[in-house]
What we know:
This protein has helices at residues 3-24, 28-51, 60-90. It is mainly alpha-helical and 103 residues long. The mean pLDDT is 84.
Amino acid sequence: MSPLQLCLALSALLFSIGLVGALSRSNTILVLLGIELMLNAANLNFIAFWRYGPHSAAGTGVIFVLFSIAVAAAEAAVGLALVIAVYRHQKNIRLQEANRLKG
């Protein structure tokens, strides 16, 4: 296997673990962790295609990853703020009870 194929296989494994974690959990924080794993798998794809692509001298892959990390940090901050707001209101963070957000 080539190094690109190994990187893509690792990325697919990370994405699968994140997807299973995001879809099968009822805890909001664990769902956010699954989404972060999927974003990290996408970052690994960006870096792999940049490194093993035809024009690896240009830093386009690194720029994509930096923007993706910034978006993931903003997503985590907003997601955790929502979790804290729901916890203060309902005293739990289960997704099944989060549909009652009326004050």
